[in-house]
Write a structure and sequence with these properties.
Elements: H1 2-15, H2 29-53, H3 58-74, H4 77-99, H5 103-128, H6 149-159, H7 168-178, H8 181-194, H9 198-216, H10 222-237, H11 242-247, H12 253-257, E1 259-260, E2 268-269, H13 275-297, H14 305-313, H15 323-347, H16 351-365
Antiparallel strand pairs: 1-2
Helix pairs in contact: 1-2, 2-3, 2-4, 3-4, 3-13, 4-15, 5-6, 5-7, 5-15, 6-7, 6-8, 6-14, 6-15, 8-9, 8-14
């Protein structure tokens, strides 16, 4: 694999001088001569990096390579920056999956997340009292240290299904103070999915529904309606050409478009507030295919309540476009993947391992 990657890198280096004739978006010839070859070489390096990562995770590695290739057609600095972050995040995920296969590190990761979530919940409670040493949230919404109440709600929602009964109450209180409908719904769906008893599952679902109605019924629904208007407007603006549907408009294209709220033109949505829709818009059906392939390959991981909560949050928040939320999500995915793998290993008992001692002892007496 390294030999092939080296051969491709050598070929790219030899071809690099012939790229200086390209102008792309650089009007100045000197700038073009410097920037375009560097852009091409970096894109190819990301593509090769994705192929290298495919040795450990094929769908994830191929998706990184696809992102690297797509930057050559998008040709914007934002698309290249996003491709950088995608391959770095993918490499981090693969490293953590291998590290957290060791039980002591996996337990430390869970404890670290619970401590972090507990601190955020305490800071959120302090913000309600307007203590001078805690930054008070605007419009009465607490946010911990995460700058926005929705981000706090999503952060807690992803961690709550991993919490013990001792830590769960303080995290749920922090979630309620965040006043995030997205986080609230995601957390309870994650918790309900972990309950095995059918009656208790129904009772918890009814309780979650009643709490949702009681907590959010009288609150402003402008954020929800704005998202719905945004998604409907984006679908209406979709280019129906085969090239767009198959490959999308490229990484960062949603941010560049900057969709406006129909009823509030001053509000610009630089993110789709829906990771699945934004993936389809920017990377097309091919990008969605890689996501579906990765989910299928890791389907055991998606039985975890924390991962289900993460998947729900992605419907109305841009989790993987914020570094602190995306890194938290990567840690959770690595933890849950190893938990499911270990559980499967415990369940798998080979018949040969059981029968071979008995057969050998029988053969001895025969």
């Amino acid at each position: 694999m390294l030999e092939r990657a080296g051969a491709l890198a050598l070929l790219g280096a030899l071809a690099l001088p012939f790229t200086t004739w390209m102008r792309w978006h650089y009007p100045d010839i000197n700038e073009s001569m410097r920037a375009v070859p560097l852009f091409i070489f970096t894109s190819l390096a990301i593509t090769l990096g994705g192929l290298f990562l495919s040795n450990w995770d094929k769908p994830l590695g191929f998706f990184c390579s696809y992102c690297g290739i797509s930057t050559l057609f998008t040709q914007t600095s934002l698309s290249l920056a996003m491709a950088h972050w995608i391959i770095v995040a993918s490499a981090l995920y693969i490293v953590l999956v291998n590290l957290l296969s060791i039980e002591i590190y996996r337990k430390l990761a869970v404890v670290g997340l619970l401590i972090s979530a507990t601190i955020q919940s305490i800071v959120a409670l302090l913000q309600l009292s307007e203590f001078s040493f805690v930054t008070y949230a605007q419009k009465g919404f607490v946010h911990g240290t995460l700058t926005h109440h929705t981000f706090l709600g999503v952060f807690l929602a992803m961690i709550i299904p991993l919490a013990s009964m001792l830590a769960l109450p303080i995290l749920l209180v922090g979630l309620l103070t965040s006043a995030s409908l997205t986080g609230f719904v995601a957390a309870f769906i994650g918790l309900v999915s972990q309950v095995k008893n059918r009656r208790f599952q129904i009772a918890l679902s009814v309780l979650a529904l009643l709490l949702t109605c009681y907590t959010f019924w009288n609150k402003s629904h402008d954020s929800l309606y704005s998202r719905l208007r945004l998604w409907i407007g984006a679908f209406r603006d979709f280019d129906t050409s085969w090239r767009f549907l198959l490959f999308g408009k490229g990484l960062g294209s949603w941010f560049t478009a900057g969709y406006l709220d129909i009823k509030d033109p001053e509000q610009v949505f630089y993110q789709a507030h829906n990771e699945y829709l934004q993936l389809l818009y920017e990377m097309g059906i091919l990008g969605v295919f890689f996501l579906a392939w990765w989910i299928y390959a890791n389907r055991a991981t998606f039985k975890s309540g924390a991962v289900i909560a993460l998947a729900v949050c992605c419907f109305s928040t841009y989790v993987f476009h914020l570094v602190f939320l995306s890194v938290t999500a990567i840690i959770i995915l690595a933890i849950c993947k190893n938990q499911k793998v270990k559980a499967q290993e415990r369940k798998e008992i080979k018949c040969d391992d059981i029968l071979s001692p008995a057969l050998s002892s029988s053969a001895y007496y025969l």
